[in-house]
Design goal:
By secondary structure, the protein is α/β, with parallel strands linked by helices. The chain contains 7 helices and 5 strands.
């Protein structure tokens, strides 16, 4: 099992709350690479609530699929990007609740030195933005949080999942 019992329990509670409220849930992920969607779909019966999981790792797909604007000005790792990802995932999936995660899990310095990355970022490893979008009286409400996680890529990604679950729980 790749997820902790605590993560599974919280995800189950979120799905049950959504089911009780007749909400459909969707995820748009970048740095977590679909881990949050995988967590939700690990739970039997999640298809009654979980609508769509998008992994838009490349900026061009954030633009093409999620209609994210301002990537040139703000970058992929920003509150604005996470907010737009959440709002447009909500609309795309025709869901009631959407969560988006965009961040910098950690750059592999050797990969970077070898020239594979041509555009270094000035943002710190562990910087993550998580946004939740939902409808309230036919208006879209968005709550966005900024995090600075410490650890390697795996730790940052798992911390992002934990924080996303807590943020969703606080909305429900």
């Amino acid at each position: 099992m790749i997820f902790s019992q605590q993560q599974l329990s919280l995800a189950t509670n979120i799905l049950q709350s959504c089911w009780q409220k007749n909400y459909k849930l969707t995820c748009a992920e970048s740095c977590t690479g679909g881990l949050l969607s995988a967590l939700f779909t690990e739970i039997s019966g999640s298809s009654a609530v979980f609508e769509l999981g998008l992994v838009t790792y490349a900026n061009q797909h954030k633009i093409d699929l999620l209609k994210v604007e301002n990537l040139q000005q703000e970058g992929a790792v920003s509150a604005s990007t996470a907010k737009q990802m959440a709002i447009n995932a909500l609309k795309l999936a025709k869901a009631d609740l959407a969560i988006a995660i965009s961040g910098l899990a950690g750059v592999n310095k050797q990969f970077f030195i070898d020239g594979a990355l041509s555009n270094p970022t000035t943002k710190s490893d562990g910087l993550v933005f998580i946004a939740v979008a939902y409808y309230d009286r036919n208006q879209i409400i968005v709550k966005t949080e900024k995090y600075n996680f410490i650890g390697d890529r795996s730790q940052v990604r798992l911390s992002s999942i934990d924080s996303a679950l807590q943020l969703l729980q606080s909305i429900l």
